[in-house]
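Researcher: Structure prediction, please.
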Amino acid sequence: MSAPSNESDSREAKAARIAANPSGYKVCEGCDSIVGAGVVLCPNCHSYRFDPTPESVRKQALALGSREQTSVTAGDLS
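Model: Predicted structure follows.
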């Protein structure tokens, strides 16, 4: 068996940073990704509808940070 990667630690750390500063982010209503507050189109699904409420951002960050990544991002394709 291979050793567990630190990817989950990094994911949890990112989620904690987002949850601590939810005003800098918003949740895509198309794919539930978390994006920066200045984004106009979601880089993952190209949606233009977002939920910027701090409660939604915090809730989604904690949910995403507690599980493995399941979506394919642009970084995965390069």
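Model: The first strand starts at residue 25 and ends at 28.
Researcher: Thanks, that helps.
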